[in-house]
Amino acid sequence: MALRSKVRRPKIVLSLVAMSLLFPALAACSKDDGPEPMLDAFLAGWRSGTFDKVTFVSPTGQGVAADTVKTELRALEGVFRDTPPTLTKQTPAVSEGLATTQIKVAQPLPDKTTWEYTTTVRMTKAKDTWQVVWEPSIVHEKLTKGDELAVRRLAPTRAGVFDGKGEEIVKPRPVVVIGVEPRKVTDIDALVKDLTPIFASGAYDVSADDLAKLPARVKDAKPDALVEIVTLRREVYEPIRDRLRALMDKGVAFREEDRLLSPTRTFARALLGTVGPVTKEIMDSKPGAYQVGDQAGLGGIQRTYDDRLRGVAGQSVVSSRKASDGTVQDTVLYQVEDKDGQKLQLAIDTKTQIAAEKALATVKQRSAMVAIRISDGQLVAVANSGPDNLAFTAQVPPGSTFKAVSAYGLLDAGKVTANQIVPCPKFFTVEGRQFKNSNFLELGNVAFHTDFAKSCNTAFASLAPQLGPDGLVNAGMALGLGQTWDLGVPAFTGRVSAGGSATELAAATFGQGQTIVSPVAMAGAAAAIARGQWKQPVLLLDPAAAKPAADGPALKPTTLDPLRAMMREVVTAGTATALKDTPGGAVYGKTGTAEYDNNPAHTHAWFIGWQGDIAFAVFVENGIKPSETAVPVTESFLRNLR
């Protein structure tokens, strides 16, 4: 509504001179002060909430109390009432007792950006005093009394994770959240007793301890809250659906929703991680990036690439008004569009990954398996039986699988030939330390290829001096061990024993001593022997790893031909004959029994090798005998691929 006045409203010309406003409240104006002191006092009060020195009138010329302005201003500011804006004024345009001033408002937003706009303050002169014409449009031109500024977050769509064929691995899948609604519970102890046998199988990630804590959680929750017990994929929930729904009158409640999940509960879980409600720890690590209730990567690749996958949230600043029916009506004043996340494509082959996981399910110990396509170096399976990504991060002795590396070094340096006689005694002593073979094996005077196939430790210990102080390190480097890789996620590439005593070198030739590796490092070595050149394994296709290691030099056929024949003999007549008739073609490999502490009975089990275009490494923690653990896992994997 226009201000009533007997004078004609002049045409206003605005000055372009602007000044930053950090003004103290000022005393009332004298007849020579002009409107600026009162304007400065008002703008200072806008920021501080104090208008003791400001005189207000309504657009119709009626006086308005300072406390009324303060109350109405705070109501209009809404979400911003505790984050005052920066205000920059232009020089008022004054004519015949009226003043009009453009004010630049820089309002901080929750995401640490700033909303900038221009508003207008009108003033009128009464006798010798200037008065601010109070109206909601001062705060923003589109605001009226009863409006309130609010910020609405525009959530982006989280991108999926895709396999090597471009099929989406992680995508929205239906789940059921199972919980308890406190207001419906009459006897929580009886309810816990009813729930215990339903979850007793251990297949639902609900432990007895979880259920024991339920009464306290229900007691502390709001009456209408859903106190979550577990979230299950729909296909997992269906078999126990009826039993749970029978407890609804006792307080059990459900919520159906979609969550970003992989094809199965175990599918590459240690590698991929999971997606779920953001944690306080994650929120604290990136202030302002998340809000309570946001979805975030909770481990693995989902966490590492969370920024890329989740995208960037947008936001709208709105004038919000509650209607008579209780609904809220928003008018958008300012908006920054959200940006959806970008997909991530891995080299993983879904069929191969599932085959590996089924194979690991046959052993009870923690275990890991890595499979690499030899032709292009892509990691087609990264499987772990538990929550830790042992496939990439384990740092354990390789045991006799390392004889493939030692044999490569000896053959390549011309220190031995496959057919050369290298005795295999029951014991061999170096600097007073006695080395022995598994089960006290003794082969006598046999060819080196037989020592390899039967996994004779003493034969390799006797050849250790032929390698020299750097021979093992150089052989390992030629097969990728100990090099700097970039898979896009952390991975241990191995550390080969170097520069040690004669005893250390002897132990290291058959994978003991200070040498440690990971399954992905040994799978890469097996692939290099099969391919004839080492290539860094490839996990990420989009985006590609930033700094992958350069390809190694071509390996000499005169070295590889006998080594490959020896690895084939391991399967046909050595320590892995269970794989001799595996469908899919000839299997090449090497078993490994690795002591990991001072108790010889404590050993990890290994098998590395290849069949066709797939190289692999199998690791079973405390697997004792490879023939009973790692080799059967390998057989199961290869059969699952058919």
UniProtKB/TrEMBL annotation:
Presence of keyword Signal: yes
Domain NTF2-like N-terminal transpeptidase, first and last residues per copy: 35-147
Signal peptide residue numbers: 1-27
Ranges where the Penicillin-binding protein transpeptidase domain occurs: 369-624
Occurrences of domain Penicillin-binding protein dimerisation (ranges): 155-321
Spans through the membrane: none
Keyword Signal: yes
Keyword vocabulary terms for this entry: Membrane, Signal
InterPro entries recorded: Beta-lactam/transpept (IPR050515), Beta-lactam/transpept-like (IPR012338), MecA_N (IPR007887), PBP_dimer (IPR005311), PBP_dimer_sf (IPR036138), PCN-bd_Tpept (IPR001460)
Domain of life: Bacteria
PROSITE patterns from the UniProt entry: PROKAR_LIPOPROTEIN (PS51257)
Main location: membrane
Location relative to the cell: Membrane
Family: Belongs to the transpeptidase family.
UniProt protein name: Penicillin-binding transpeptidase domain-containing protein
